[in-house]
């Protein structure tokens, strides 16, 4: 008897928001039903995961029911949509195709799946809430205080938190209540003194003149009884700009403001909407004296407003809330999750120095600390944050630039007080605590890691401990820089989403984190930042007005979209952004292509390429631009090919032909201008040659010669090291592997001398540095927690070392071809794809290769096993030629290629 079951998923945005439900007997997860999401996508993407013990399970059809009530769904009535039995292998991208959905309603659905081994029962029901679909649904006003008060310090740029409150009465028994809130720049919502939700630093960052994200909460259980008090605290975030001395550079949106409504349905069917208006009252005289992303938070506990969000609080001294101008951007449901405290860290040491405590958490990360303290009223405790220490044991803070990175807590006195900031975060490993009364021990000061709530979906270990440590450092660095947008660093006065940092690293990040919705949101940030003429900025959202017009930074827009399509199989990503991408490509061609077919505009060159020696870069700033038309032209060619692929996926044959024709012409022009008959490109740098090789610009007849140059640069000129900056590092590991030199890629990955990832670790790094020479460079531009120099390293870990790579439709077809490299004896990796978990666990011994893999249902895989003949390969101690479910596709030299279906397999070959 076949034993299999279905895990139920609903993707409620352009890509999955990961909703899983299923029969309890199978101990399946259900995520969406506990999440207060409002979905404003008219045709959300539905999907499910099949789990089965049988091998080779393939879906042949599905039947979806979507209903307006759980009662109808239980009766198998799909009054909103009944798909009927639909012949299809699609289980990750079925778009809702029923009746038009209405704002602020709940939708219930289930699926039955048919496969080649049988059909499932109906899944357990799942649901999603439809958000507010139309601007008119809000139909009320924003409130706030537009102006400075005595509690603010306009000259210093310090703005105190704004507190707003209102008491309400519920006239009947509440059946359901849903809160919709837009609190800018940051907010916390309270009902009867209880914070609503566990999110922090919400909502997600956007350019508020373009779009504003709203959050949704089920507050039914908080509105039991008659009288209630509502409270909202507003922090500044990026709405009230952190630095305003350069208005030509930094966008400032105004003073904090909020619009909220609570939609209530009573048990008798009647409805009521509670909303923000001028009957609310507010004050700036609360305990949060200042809150600032760069400088920190100042909190005076003596000014606490005890019970301010509870019924009966005396608010006679508070001011009447005023109506204020709306931000200007479209209102959108936030489909990517908010930030959250994701992990707590205890100090590894506390030392006392000069009357101050130095806390070491043993790990560079971003977030803040939660402190317990007891002392006299008015005692001021100051916490300063840093990534490293000076030789004398004091904080090294020169690399923070103008960021003060300081929190101040003033005690109210009496009992033990517990405090953590609300509207700031820091990048740090060390904290200096000054003014703490009494003895400070590890139980009294907890580090809190904060990043966008998302699941870790990948893991990697190997027989090489350095590879494992680099992977760990990468995880901490990536997590630390997820702040609603992919910021470059979490510590200094920057923290911007530079496009150039992410083309290859975003790809690798997807193997670690369930970040699809996060990057979908960022693509929208980029699209909305585009100028009418087509220009795309280097930073998006464009909080800094940097439109330098180069290829490598804005080109990330296309590269990340390509990655998301490859990893999720959602073609709507490409359709949504294709017009903006095409417009940008035309813009760059019109302005910057010379008469010889070369794109002459490049702003940064191979940014942050390493100095030749560690001493050569000592004390020097890496903030040096070296524009290079070879780089900009190579990227334009590559992006022409990317656009042609997009046209293929979306069925645009006319544009595809134009892009392909332009690429052929540019390839000729590129080689005419930059190729040297000696076998190299441009100035013969490693990055220039790698781009020509990986992008396919080199003629086939010249590939061997170019490969020789690349190898010679690394092995001879660089003594076995890389010399690439941000641009070249995005492609180097895959280029070497494609050239058949995975051994050389492995050497780069495992070096411990300068420049290398191992060198960073040898010198104390627990994340990834911004610079290869981060221990000697000038501190002005020297972050110790960046991701840009990861390049394509993580892609190489998962796709090449582990052999987990999508070949089609978001891993519906998988290619598994692990690189066997001398000195690496074992790799174990897992990746949670949209179809289910893919695992690869191989061990190489002197004469044998053993490989355990898992392939999820409704997918197929092509495996490359190290063997000369299929007859030398066994699976579960049985020769694969005796297994009718395994098809030998080729026996070519030292590799046997076979095709398999889903299941868990244990292969063994003789080497």
Automatic annotation (TrEMBL):
Entry keywords, A to Z: Hydrolase
Enzyme Commission number: 3.2.1.40
Domain Bacterial alpha-L-rhamnosidase N-terminal: 172-342
GO biological process, one term: carbohydrate metabolic process
GO MF annotation terms: alpha-L-rhamnosidase activity
Domain Alpha-L-rhamnosidase six-hairpin glycosidase: 456-801
Transmembrane is among the record's keywords: no
Alpha-L-rhamnosidase concanavalin-like domain ranges (all copies): 352-451
All residue ranges annotated as the Alpha-L-rhamnosidase C-terminal domain in the record: 803-877
The keyword Hydrolase is assigned to this record: yes
Record-given protein name: alpha-L-rhamnosidase
Organism lineage string: Bacteria, Pseudomonadati, Bacteroidota, Sphingobacteriia, Sphingobacteriales
């Amino acid at each position: 008897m076949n034993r299999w079951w279905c895990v139920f998923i609903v993707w409620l945005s352009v890509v999955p928001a990961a909703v899983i439900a299923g029969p309890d007997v199978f101990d399946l997860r259900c995520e969406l039903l506990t999440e207060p999401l409002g979905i404003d996508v008219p045709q959300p993407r539905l999907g499910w995961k099949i789990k089965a013990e049988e091998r080779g399970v393939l879906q042949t059809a599905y039947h979806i029911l979507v209903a307006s009530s759980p009662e109808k769904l239980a009766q198998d009535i799909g009054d909103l949509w009944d798909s009927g039995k639909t012949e299809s292998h699609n289980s990750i991208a079925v778009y809702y195709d029923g009746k038009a959905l209405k704002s602020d309603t709940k939708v219930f659905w289930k699926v039955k799946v048919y496969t080649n081994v049988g059909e499932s029962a109906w899944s357990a029901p799942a649901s999603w809430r439809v958000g507010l679909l139309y601007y008119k649904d809000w139909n009320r006003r924003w409130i706030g205080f537009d102006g400075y008060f005595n509690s603010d310090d306009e000259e210093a740029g310090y703005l105190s938190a704004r507190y707003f409150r209102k008491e309400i009465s519920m006239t009947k028994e509440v059946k359901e209540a849903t809160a919709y809130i837009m609190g800018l720049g940051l907010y916390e919502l309270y009902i009867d003194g209880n914070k609503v939700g566990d999110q922090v630093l919400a909502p997600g960052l956007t350019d508020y003149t373009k779009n504003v994200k709203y959050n949704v909460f089920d507050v039914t259980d908080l509105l039991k009884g008659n009288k209630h008090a509502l409270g909202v605290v507003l922090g500044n975030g990026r709405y009230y700009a952190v630095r305003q001395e350069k208005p030509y550079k930094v966008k400032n949106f105004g003073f904090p403001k909020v619009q909220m409504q609570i939609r209530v349905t009573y048990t008798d069917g009647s409805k009521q909407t509670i909303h923000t208006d001028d009957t609310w009252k507010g004050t700036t005289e609360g305990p949060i004296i200042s809150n600032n992303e760069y400088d920190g938070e100042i909190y005076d506990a003596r000014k606490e407003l005890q019970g301010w969000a509870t019924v009966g609080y005396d608010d006679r001294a508070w001011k009447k809330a005023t109506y204020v101008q709306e931000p200007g951007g479209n209102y959108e449901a936030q489909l990517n999750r908010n930030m959250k405290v994701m992990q707590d860290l205890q100090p590894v040491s506390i030392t006392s120095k000069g009357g101050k405590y130095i806390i070491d958490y043993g790990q560079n990360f971003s977030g803040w600390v939660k402190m317990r303290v007891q002392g006299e009223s008015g005692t001021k405790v100051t916490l300063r944050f840093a990534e490293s220490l000076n030789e004398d044991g004091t904080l090294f803070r020169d690399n923070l630039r103008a960021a003060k990175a300081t929190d101040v807590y003033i005690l109210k006195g009496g009992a033990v007080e517990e405090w953590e900031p609300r509207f700031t975060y820091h990048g740090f490993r060390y904290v200096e605590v000054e003014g703490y009364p009494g003895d400070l021990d590890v139980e009294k000061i907890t580090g809190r890691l904060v990043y966008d709530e998302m699941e870790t979906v990948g893991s990697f270990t190997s027989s090489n401990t350095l590879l494992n440590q680099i992977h760990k450092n990468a995880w901490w660095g990536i997590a630390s820089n997820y702040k609603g947008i992919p910021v470059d660093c979490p510590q200094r006065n920057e923290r911007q989403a530079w496009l150039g940092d992410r083309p290859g690293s975003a790809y690798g990040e997807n193997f670690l984190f369930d970040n699809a919705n996060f990057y979908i949101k960022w693509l929208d940030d980029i699209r909305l930042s585009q100028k009418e003429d087509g220009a795309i900025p280097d930073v998006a959202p464009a909080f800094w007005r940097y439109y330098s017009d180069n290829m490598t930074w804005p080109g990330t827009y296309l590269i990340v979209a390509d990655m998301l399509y490859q990893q999720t199989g959602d073609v709507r990503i490409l359709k949504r952004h294709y017009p903006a991408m095409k417009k940008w490509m035309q813009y760059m061609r019109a302005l910057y292509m010379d008469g010889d077919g070369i794109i002459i505009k490049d702003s940064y060159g191979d940014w942050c390429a390493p100095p030749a020696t560690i001493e050569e870069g000592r004390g020097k700033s890496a903030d040096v631009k070296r524009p290079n038309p070879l780089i900009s032209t190579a990227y334009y060619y590559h992006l022409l090919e990317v656009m042609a692929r997009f046209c293929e996926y979306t069925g645009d044959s006319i544009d595809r032909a134009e892009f392909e024709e332009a690429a052929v012409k540019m390839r000729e022009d590129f080689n005419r201008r930059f190729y040297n008959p000696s076998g190299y490109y441009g100035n013969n740098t490693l990055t220039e040659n790698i781009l020509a090789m990986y992008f396919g610009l080199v003629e086939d007849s010249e590939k061997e010669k170019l490969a020789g140059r690349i190898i010679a640069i690394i092995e001879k000129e660089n003594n076995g090291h890389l010399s690439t900056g941000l641009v070249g590092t995005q492609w180097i590991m895959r280029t070497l592997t494609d050239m058949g030199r995975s051994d050389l890629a492995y050497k780069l990955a495992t070096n411990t001398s300068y420049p290398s990832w191992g060198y960073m670790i040898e010198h104390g790094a627990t994340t990834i540095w911004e610079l290869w020479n981060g221990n000697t460079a000038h501190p002005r531009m020297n972050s110790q927690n960046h991701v840009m120099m990861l390049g394509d390293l993580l892609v190489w870990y998962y796709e090449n070392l582990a052999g987990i790579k999508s070949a089609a439709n978001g891993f519906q077809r998988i290619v598994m071809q692990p690189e066997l490299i001398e000195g690496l004896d074992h790799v174990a990796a897992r990746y949670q794809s949209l179809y289910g978990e893919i695992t690869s666990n191989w061990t190489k011994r002197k004469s044998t290769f053993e490989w355990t893999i898992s392939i999820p249902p409704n997918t197929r895989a092509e495996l490359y096993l190290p063997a000369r003949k299929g007859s030398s390969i066994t699976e579960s101690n049985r020769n694969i030629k005796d297994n009718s479910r395994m098809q030998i596709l080729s026996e070519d030299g030292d590799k046997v290629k076979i095709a398999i279906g889903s299941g868990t397999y244990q292969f063994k070959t003789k080497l």
